Amino acid sequence: MGGYGSGRYRWNVKPLVEGRQRLDVRDLSKQMKKFGEAMYRAKLVMTYEVANEKLSQPLVFTRTPCYFGGWRPWLVCPCGRRVGVLYFKGKEYRCRKCCGLAYTSQNETADIRAIRRAHKIRRLLGGQANSFLPFPHKPKGMHWKTYWVYAKKHSKAQEESWPPWLLKRLDREDLEAALF
User: Which residues contact 100 (CB under 8 A, 6 or more apart)?
Assistant: First the structure.
């Protein structure tokens, strides 16, 4: 079964952010609320230990104004990019671009993304993320118009997840009957 190059293996896949230790500005800003405005003027130095070696890295914070008031905090990567999360690589924390990391969804094929979209709609409607179960009923309090918009999006996502050779063999009425 299959030979060289068959299947869905991709050789050019980047490492994923989910497997890395991270430093999130939202978590840090919650812990540092007591410092207030001084947090953006002070030079903070983070010290940590890697393989019995003590290391330190300066943390630079900045902020931008939000449209409806308030401020959004950011970390500044050593490369100068303003980011929300820094990831650990080697002996320091850097942004996702510097580390060459990708999100899981960036490595998925179009049909897998379509299945994930369909499952998300099912969970949103109170059902289970299982395409073999019947489509969930309308939740109490949801408008019928909204329900039918979700049903149509689910149908489109299900259709995109099917292989092209199968879609050619089915005509439109059979496909609609199979999805509902």
Answer: 14, 15
Give the model confidence (pLDDT) of 91-129 as tens digits: 999 999 999 999 888 888 888 899 999 999 999 999 999
Pair 160, 114: CB distance under 8 Å: yes
Count of CB atoms situated within 10 Å of the CB of 58? 10
Residues 6 or more apart from 65 whose CB is under 8 A from it?
71, 72
Residue among 148, 174, 163 at smallest CA distance from 115:
163
Whether residue 131 contacts residue 118, with contact meaning beta carbons closer than 8 Å, is answered with: yes
Alpha helices (H) in the chain, listed in sequence order: 25-31, 38-41, 96-99, 110-124, 144-161, 164-169, 172-179
Structure tokens at 26: 């939202």
pLDDT tier at 149 (50, 70, 90 boundaries)?
very high
Write out the two tokens for 21: 């230790």
